[in-house]
């Protein structure tokens, strides 16, 4: 290929590369999910329902405190978790959201197992409080992340 | 068309990104530290519960798994908040050079 054409091709390639870099530089990167108000409120509602249930368990005698007498809580929790998971799955960059929902689901499963193990007896306050502390940490983590997403506003470009 | 000074662009971008990270990282670290302190206390409480007989040997592993799941949720939140900080840092760096680049190019390319 003649030298002149090689020089023109090289300059054209450089111009295209520079344009690509500059245009890329002008576009904001997005590595995180958009804030989802519905998901945020779902987490708070789930927290309220869970706390209400744990408080109820602390005061109930047997048999009302047993797993068999409280199937509705676990059914409702399963539905709520499924809805949260669906919502998070539909979101981009959802890895951390899904990890948190998975953790929450497993903590619910642990509570279920504890109640099933207890059979016809009630969980004592020490066990309930230990589970409550686990739930509280998960909710705090989820809400902290949601608040951070809510506050994640793109910067104003310099003039 | 005025030339673009790569060194100057780099300095501007680095300063903008560092500013965001210095502002955001302490909050992420503080959150994670606080939460892990609470989890550590809860694990200690499980041990005391087993010792006092309030928690059975069947219940203890389940309660411990709950604390493990809580730890995973906290780590996910910290990673997520860190990613937000990184995203903001990169976007701030790009925003900081937009004016310089457009002036050098001679028209509002960006």
Cα gyration radius of chain A (Å): 26 Å
Note the quaternary state here.
heterodimer
Chains forming the largest contact: A-B, 53 and 47 residues
Task: List the secondary-structure elements of chain B in sequence, H or E.
Answer: HH
Radius of gyration of chain B: 24 Å
Form type of chain B: rod-shaped
* Whole-number count of domains of chain B: 1
Mean model confidence by pLDDT of chain A: 87
H-E order of chain A: HHHHH
The computed structural class of chain B is: mainly alpha
Tally of extended strands of chain B? 0
Q: Which secondary-structure class do the elements of chain A indicate?
A: mainly alpha
Biggest β-sheet of chain B: count, sense, barrel?
none
Strands of chain A, total number: 0
Count of alpha/pi helices of chain A = 5
Q: Give the uncertain stretches of chain B in residue-range form.
A: none
What is the end-to-end distance of chain A? 44 Å
Query: Segments of chain A where pLDDT lies below 50 for 5+ residues?
Result: 12-20
Average pLDDT, all residues of chain B: 88
**First-residue to last-residue Cα separation of chain B:** 16 Å
Fraction of residues in β-strands of chain B: under 5%
Characterization of the model:
The complex is a heterodimer of chains A (about 160) and B (about 110). In chain A, about 75% of the residues lie in helices and about 0% in strands. Chain A is built from 5 helices and no strands. In chain A, helix 2 packs antiparallel against helix 3, helix 2 runs antiparallel to helix 5 and helix 4 packs antiparallel against helix 5. The longest helix of chain A is centred in the last third of the chain and has 26 residues. Chain A is elongated and about 90 Å long. The two termini of chain A are about 45 Å apart. Chain B has 2 helices and no strands. In chain B, helix 1 runs antiparallel to helix 2. At the A-B interface, helix 1, helix 4 and helix 5 of A face helix 1 and helix 2 of B.
């Amino acid at each position: 290929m003649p030298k002149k054409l090689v020089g023109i091709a090289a300059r054209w390639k450089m111009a295209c590369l520079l344009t690509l870099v500059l245009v890329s530089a002008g576009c904001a990167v997005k590595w995180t999910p958009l804030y989802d108000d519905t998901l945020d409120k779902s987490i708070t509602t789930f927290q309220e329902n869970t706390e209400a249930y744990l408080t109820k368990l602390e005061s109930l005698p047997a048999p009302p405190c047993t797993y068999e007498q409280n199937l509705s809580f676990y059914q409702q929790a399963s539905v709520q978790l499924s809805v949260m998971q669906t919502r998070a799955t539909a979101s981009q960059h959802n890895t951390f959201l899904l990890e948190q929902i998975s953790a929450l689901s497993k903590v619910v499963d642990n509570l279920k197992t504890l109640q099933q193990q207890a059979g016809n007896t009630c969980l004592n306050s020490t066990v309930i409080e230990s589970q409550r502390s686990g739930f509280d940490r998960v909710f705090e983590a989820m809400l902290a992340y949601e608040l951070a997403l809510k506050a994640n506003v793109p910067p104003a470009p310099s003039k | 068309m005025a030339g673009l000074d790569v060194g100057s662009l780099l300095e501007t971008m680095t300063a903008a990104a560092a500013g965001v990270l210095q502002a955001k990282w302490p909050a992420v670290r503080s959150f994670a530290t606080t939460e892990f302190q609470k989890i550590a206390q809860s694990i200690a409480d499980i041990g005391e519960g087993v010792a006092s007989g309030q928690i059975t040997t069947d219940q203890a592993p389940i309660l411990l798994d709950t604390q493990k799941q809580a730890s995973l949720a906290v780590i996910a939140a910290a990673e997520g908040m860190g990613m937000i900080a990184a995203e903001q840092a990169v976007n701030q760096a790009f925003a900081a050079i937009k004016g310089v680049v457009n002036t050098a190019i001679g028209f509002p390319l960006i």
